[in-house]
Design brief:
- The chain has about 500 residues and is of the alpha+beta class.
- About 45% of the residues lie in helices and about 15% in strands.
- The radius of gyration is 28 Å and the shape is elongated.
- About 10% of the residues have low confidence.
Length: about 500
């Protein structure tokens, strides 16, 4: 039980660090490098158990960081270079900082993001703190805005196959910022000007600017590491091809690509746009522009099939109505929202719309409920409510803070957590026998406190009932069913039993 609790606590810690954009990894999509030395603050042990827990936390962080970008609908701009200015210290950063500081008021960062806190951005502060950005051969400097929109600018340096690589990356949330009426062209122009300015100070090998969610839907097998040499799998709103790619394609051929903007940059790179702004990246016009450009650069591809693939991706951005079974709608909605568009939300909604849990079977007529057989009825009730139910709160107060509040929202949040985290599958027999009484008592307390029920304690917990009207509900039996396999927390949710009892009260 202790190992499972530790794993779940560390998963939650990793998720929380990602939500705060703090902690153990580079926030950029292509260079998520785990900073293991930061994990020493949480887990100093480097034994087998300690390293396993490090992996649990790191995996949770990476997944949540990616999902945060997807859920919030962010824009990602990444520019990559074979030169690492951070290796030469802060003086080599000055030209890049000039560009960053020249951004408009609605994009310019004003804070330095550190592991534990944010600091007001000044060059003097950055100079003093630059040593904290290095870990091994990797460096990450992250600058953020304290006011909406959320903007993070990352200056990263690392090695790939013993070759130095650096990146300048911008993440903007929400994506709707780039769609604001009357501002879309101006803000797109800011981003293009930013690329030009960076290219005049740093040789570029590759770059792109696009919806982060759409990037996650990409068919490009290398989209997790955009810094490496690559064939052309996709085209984006903004594209930067460095000298090596230009030479492979042919400069004149590349300059003839159908585009909204085509421009040669310093150092031999070429910048080009498929549309004037990124705002309509998933529209029919934008998809056609992306497909035509890709097929031009890769004539072996079919325009029809390329366009069909892009249309399918655009379909993911058209939400289906959620017509979920009302008894478990909250649970299913949380799962769909967790995965987001890039995680297949549309297909999940389609599947969940057809899902109905089995009818509640954990009840019997009140007249058939066996009388209490315990020595002290009140002492048994006190054990249910004062020990077992409180034990559940102690177990889950971090992962499911709603259990501390005593509101009805706690039940679907708890059900979702048990289902989503696979508690029904991962428990040992000992853990199972600990959690069943805690979950059953927690559910039973709601039946008593909210619906006016009355406990009928029994020595065998599965027989203990809560009488409401002419029915006796069996919360401990429900808890046992809810933890019998991976899907059981959904099929036998506390929420469904409570709502059924509420309707029939």
């Amino acid at each position: 039980m202790l190992r499972t609790q530790l794993e779940n606590t560390l998963r939650t810690t990793g998720q929380e660090l990602a939500r705060k954009s703090l902690g153990i990894a580079c926030g950029s999509m292509p260079a998520c490098v785990v900073q293991w030395h930061k994990l020493d603050e949480f887990m100093p042990s480097r034994g087998e158990g300690g390293m396993h827990l490090r992996q649990v936390m790191a995996a949770s962080f990476s997944q949540e960081a990616r999902l945060q970008h997807v859920r919030n609908g962010s824009f990602h701009l990444g520019l990559f270079s074979p030169v690492r200015p951070l290796d030469q210290g802060v003086e080599a950063l000055e030209p890049l900082l000039d560009v960053i500081e020249s951004l408009g008021d609605d994009l310019r960062p004003d804070r330095i993001l550190q592991t534990r806190r944010e600091l007001k951005y000044t060059r003097q502060t950055l100079r003093k703190r630059l040593h904290e950005a290095s870990f091994g051969t990797n460096t990450v400097v992250r600058l953020v805005r304290s006011q909406p929109p959320e903007v993070m600018i990352s200056l990263c340096g690392w090695e790939h196959d013993d070759q130095p690589i650096s990146s300048v990356e911008i993440s903007i949330q929400p994506f709707a910022f780039l769609r604001e009426p009357g501002q879309a062209e101006r803000r797109a122009g800011q981003l293009v000007s930013f690329v030009r300015a960076i290219a005049s100070r740093l040789p570029l090998s590759f770059g792109l600017g696009h919806s982060f969610t759409d990037l996650c839907l990409s068919t490009d097998p290398q989209n997790k590491d955009l810094s490496t040499p690559r064939p052309i799998y996709e085209t984006f709103w903004l594209n930067v091809y460095g000298p090596a790619m230009v030479q492979t394609i042919g400069r004149q051929r590349l300059l003839s690509t159908p585009a909204a903007l085509m421009e040669e940059l310093p150092g031999g790179a070429i910048l080009w746009l498929t549309r004037p702004t990124p705002a309509d990246f998933d529209s029919e016009e934008a998809r056609l522009a992306q497909a035509r450009a890709l097929v031009y650069l890769r004539p072996e591809l079919s325009l029809d099939s390329t366009l069909a693939t892009l249309h399918q991706r655009s379909l993911e951005f058209s939400p289906l109505p959620m017509e979920f079974d009302p008894d478990v709608a909250d649970i299913l909605r949380m799962e769909a929202d967790f995965h987001g568009v890039a995680g297949g939300k549309r297909s999940l909604v389609e599947r969940f719309n057809h899902y109905h849990p089995p009818p509640v079977s954990e009840w019997l007529p009140a007249s058939q409920a066996p009388a209490p057989d315990v020595d002290n009825v009140q002492a048994a009730i006190d054990t249910y409510e004062g020990f077992y139910a409180e034990q559940l709160i102690a177990l889950f107060h971090s992962d499911v803070p709603q259990v501390m509040e005593g509101t009805l929202e706690a039940l679907p949040h708890l059900d979702w957590h048990l289902w989503h985290m696979g508690w029904g599958k991962s428990l040992s027999r000992e853990q199972h026998e600990t959690l069943v009484p805690a979950l059953g008592a927690f559910l039973g307390r709601y039946l008593v406190d909210v619906l006016g029920g009355r406990w009928l304690p029994r020595k065998k917990l599965e027989e203990a009932a809560v009488i409401i009207g002419d029915r006796a509900w069996l919360p401990f039996l429900r808890a046992r069913h809810a933890l019998q396999n991976q899907e059981a927390p959904l099929d036998y949710s506390c929420s469904q039993l409570f709502r059924t009892a509420q309707r029939l009260a």
